[in-house]
Amino acid sequence: MQYRDLNGYPCELSFEKNNFSYESRHVLVICRYNGKWVLTRHNERGLEFPGGKVETGESLQAAAKREVYEETGACVNSLEWFAEYMVYSTKPFCKTVFVGAVEKVNKIPLLETQGIILVEELEPGGEFSFLMKDAGMRTIIEKVKQLEKWDD
């Protein structure tokens, strides 16, 4: 699927592994806890799924779990690869999307975000980050909702 993000950059979404020539060095994690979607409030962008950059020597899965924990205090289990998307910005990058379930939430001091936000419905509007509002993210969200195993 091809689309433009809300910054105007061309993007491409794939639900097949290794579909892009760029190595993925970014992660996004869609997970649930007690039947609610796990989001975080980024200090500048607003509500969004947790995620970030992969550190040197770190696997995508390890980065996904670390980013969720650092941004929300949530401990993820049952992490599974779900999709990848390319953003063809001035510095193109590939991001891997994982889905998972949260087993527990710890209270930790947070620096990059305002912590965990649990929501029942994903209706990206006013207080949501621009990252949650483009056609690619809407497609990802709809496909995740179709996975009965993530609907706890």
TrEMBL record:
Q: In which organism is this protein found? A: Planococcus antarcticus DSM 14505
Indicate the family of this protein. Belongs to the Nudix hydrolase family.
Query: What UniProt keywords apply to this chain's record, in alphabetical order?
Result: Hydrolase
- A single MF term (Gene Ontology): hydrolase activity
Per the UniProt record, the lineage of the source organism begins with: Bacteria, Bacillati, Bacillota, Bacilli, Bacillales
Recorded hits in Pfam families, A to Z, give: NUDIX
Q: Which residues form the signal peptide?
A: none
Q: Describe the location of the Nudix hydrolase domain by residue ranges.
A: 27-107
Residue ranges annotated as coiled coil are none
Gene3D superfamilies, from UniProt?
Nucleoside Triphosphate Pyrophosphohydrolase
Provide the transmembrane region boundaries.
none
CDD domains cross-referenced by the UniProt entry: NUDIX_RppH
Matches recorded under InterPro entries = Nudix_hydrolase, NUDIX_hydrolase-like_dom_sf, NUDIX_hydrolase_CS, NUDIX_hydrolase_dom, Nudix_YtkD
What is this protein's name? Nucleoside triphosphatase YtkD
